[in-house]
Design brief:
Number of strands: 10
Largest sheet: 10 strands, antiparallel
Strand content: 25-35%
Helix content: 10-25%
Mean pLDDT: 85
Low-confidence stretches: 5-24
Radius of gyration: 19 Å
Distance between the termini: 32 Å
Order of helices and strands: HEEEEEEEEEEHHH
Length: 230
C-alpha cells in the first residue's frame, strides 16, 4: 500500500506542475520524463503534458486511456502529441524512488469489463504494474464510481487491484472482484472455489488479515492454486 500512496502523492505534484509548464525551469521537469514504448516497438523519450489518470477530479472522457507527450521539457500541451492505450505498450518513468527503484511502469492491457451483452468484454487501459510472482502480476488503476449512502449519492475515486496471468496469450487484466466469478471457469477451472476456500480452515484468520493489509495476497493464493493443479 505504501507504494501506491507514494505514487499518488507524486502524481498530485506532477498534475499540479503541469499547468504552467512553460514557466518552470527545464531542470525541474525531470519528474515528467517518461520512455514510451509503442506496440510497434518504437521508443519515444519525452515529457508528459496531460495525464491519463482521473485524479484531482479531472473530467476525462475516457479515463486511463490517453495522454499527451512533448519531446522537450518546455513543450506546451497544445503542441504535444496524443497517444492512446491502443497504440502504446508501456510508459516508464525515468526517475526512480525507494519504493520503485526501477521507476514506475504503466502498461496497456485489455481490462475485463463484462457487459450485459458480452460477458467477456474488455477495455484497453493503462494499468500500473506493481508486484509479481512466478506466474502472475498485480496491477492497479483508479476510477471514479458512484456510491449510494441512504439518500446521498456521491462520486468516489477508488483504486482497483487487478491480476494478469502470465500464461494468458491475450494478456487480459482481471479486477479482483471478477476472479471468483464464472468469468474464468474455462480459463482457470476451480480458481473461483480455491479463492473462497483460501479464507477457510486453520489459516483463515491470518489470511483474512493479509487480505485486509496486503493487496498482493492474491499472488500467494494463485500460486497455491497452481500447485493443486499439478
Amino acid at each position: 500500500m505504501k507504494r501506491i500512496v507514494w505514487f499518488a502523492l507524486a502524481l498530485v505534484v506532477a498534475l499540479g506542475a503541469m499547468q504552467p509548464v512553460e514557466a518552470k525551469k527545464q531542470e525541474d521537469q525531470e519528474f515528467r520524463r517518461v520512455i514510451v514504448t509503442l506496440k510497434s516497438g518504437e521508443k519515444i523519450d519525452g515529457y508528459l503534458t496531460a495525464m491519463w489518470t482521473p485524479d484531482r477530479g479531472l473530467k476525462l472522457k475516457k479515463p486511463n486511456y490517453s495522454f499527451k507527450l512533448a519531446l522537450t521539457p518546455d513543450g506546451k500541451r497544445s503542441d504535444s502529441a496524443k497517444y492512446t492505450a491502443d497504440e502504446v505498450a508501456s510508459i516508464d518513468y525515468t526517475e526512480a524512488s525507494e519504493e520503485y527503484p526501477d521507476g514506475i511502469r504503466w502498461e496497456s492491457h485489455p481490462v475485463a469489463s463484462p457487459s450485459i451483452g458480452n460477458r467477456y468484454h474488455t477495455n484497453n487501459m493503462f494499468v500500473c504494474k506493481d508486484v509479481s510472482s512466478e506466474h502472475a502480476t498485480v496491477y492497479w488503476y483508479k476510477a471514479w464510481v458512484t456510491e449510494q449512502t441512504g439518500n446521498i449519492t456521491k462520486r468516489v475515486l477508488k483504486i482497483f487491484y487487478c491480476l494478469r496471468f502470465h500464461d494468458d496469450p491475450d494478456q487480459i487484466v482481471y479486477p479482483y472482484q471478477l476472479l471468483n466469478t464464472v468469468l474464468l471457469k474455462d480459463k482457470k477451472p476451480g480458481l473461483k472455489e480455491h479463492i473462497k476456500g483460501w479464507f477457510k480452515g486453520e489459516e483463515k484468520k491470518a489470511r483474512k488479515k493479509q487480505r485486509k493489509d496486503e493487496y498482493a495476497w492474491i499472488l500467494d493464493c494463485y500460486e497455491d492454486y497452481l500447485r493443486t493443479r499439478e
